[in-house]
Amino acid sequence: MADGFAFEVVESRGAARTGRLHTAHGVVDTPAFMPVATYGAVRGVSMDELEQLGSQILLSNTYHLEERPGSEVIAELGGLHGFTGWRGPWLTDSGGYQVTSLAHRLRLDEQGVTFTSPIDGRRRLLTPENAIESQQKLGSDIAMVLDECVPKDPDDSSTRLRAAAERTLRWAERSALARRGHAQAVFGIVQGGTDPQLREWSASGLVGLGFEGFAHGGLGLGEEPAERDDMVAAAHAVIPSAAPRYLMGLGYPADLVNGVAAGVDLFDCVIPSRHGRHGVLFTDTGVLKIRNARYRDDSDPPDTGCDCPTCARHCRAYLRHLFQTKEALGARLATVHNLRFYMRLLERVRAAIVDGSLEALQLRINEVPAR
Q1: Mean pLDDT score of the chain, rounded to an integer?
Q2: Which member of 147, 229, 268, 303 is catalytic?
Q3: What is the Cα–Cα distance from 107 to 330, expressed in whole angstroms?
Q4: What distance in Å separates the CA atoms of residue 308 and residue 328, rounded to the nearest whole number?
Q5: Is 268 among the catalytic positions?
Q6: Among 323, 361, 315, 256, which Cα is nearest to 30's?
Q7: Which of 175, 204, 211, 252 has the highest count of CB atoms within 10 angstroms of its CB?
Q8: Catalytic residue status for 265
Q9: How far, CA to CA in Å, does 366 sit from each of 13, 101, 170, 303, 326?
Q10: Quick one: pLDDT band at residue 222, thresholds 50, 70, 90?
Q11: Where does residue 29 rank: exposed (0-12), middle (13-18), buried (19+ CB within 10 A)?
């Protein structure tokens, strides 16, 4: 077990639970949402603002940080905490998702993944061992193993999914052997697409490798929500209940609430910040596309029930004006609102688990249009 790392379940109702994730840089109340700071920053939002919005833990990407400025530079400046000024916990992804998103720029074999850099054209090899080494240099509180993420392909047989899940497990074994010291927790990643038996097999293989937590990988890539819930349940059947569970890359508000109901503790996604930059704001009554002409003279705040700085001070007409004039402040204010909406949602979810009203909240959130 990593130094200073522990997870405790505080309250549970059915599969859903609240907990406390202890790290060397602070405690995270779960279920929790991690804003995505790919390059060490959530675009346009300061670390002070992230704290004020209720963020407890941030996520960054090892592949992109290795591209620039490099893990050696960040290590010399005190790791991610010293480099960025975020003093709370960090989770770093290994770069496994780039196996899917940058498929046209890579070659994958048993050794690892060779990328052609979009920055300078050089070829870079990412292996299970150097992914762990890079994350140790970054000094994150939680590191992720390198995995092979295969998107859903209705025309493909299960052969490719099984091969990817088997390779992911072999890479996880190498990642476990590559750990040095006890300063950083490491999470294994369950793969297996939408095959419940394969996902259970993958989870079973990870359990004996000494990881502090487990993540669901390869979901949110086109499967139906009910199908996703089944995949999560298949893995949870063998993952120890005392370990934190992380659903990677999801998603919309309903995805988070449904994930919590299925027993997930941690989430991340670019949706709140990316949607904010494009003028799409989440509210309790559905999404608000602020560029629409109907908001030209609307004096209401974006979301009347929200306590964020954007809603406290600005009206819809002003936000629309900022986007229409391509003023950078518009994207920033919308992102601030969306992040606070997500933090408030998880605060409500934690309270609903405690008082037994999660099912009612889940029904309400699933009825709200998210697109």
Answers
A1: 95
A2: 268
A3: 40
A4: 18
A5: yes
A6: 256
A7: 175
A8: no
A9: 19, 28, 38, 18, 33
A10: confident
A11: middle
Residues of the chain with CATH 3.20.20.105: 6-268
pLDDT band at 235 (very low <50, low <70, confident <90, very high): very high
Using alpha carbons, list the distances in angstroms from residue 354 to 16, 57, 192, 195, 365.
10, 22, 33, 33, 18
pLDDT classification of 177: cutoffs 50, 70, 90: very high
Contact (Cβ atoms closer than 8 angstroms) between residue 206 and residue 235: no
> Taking the complete model, does pTM exceed 0.85, yes or no?
yes
Residue 286: strand, helix, or coil:
strand
Give the span between the Cα atoms of 234 and 246, in whole angstroms. Answer: 14
Distance separating alpha carbons of residues 168 and 54, to the nearest angstrom:
34
Q: Could you tell me which CATH number the domain at 6-268 has?
A: 3.20.20.105
Structure token digits, residue 130: 């150097």
Residue 153 has pLDDT above 70, yes or no: no
Helix 225-236 × helix 196-207 angle, to 10°: 30
pLDDT tens by residue, 249-277: 998 999 999 999 999 999 999 999 999 99
For the beta carbon of residue 307, count every other beta carbon within 10 angstroms. Answer: 11
Could you tell me how many helices (H) and strands (E) the chain has, helices first? 15, 16
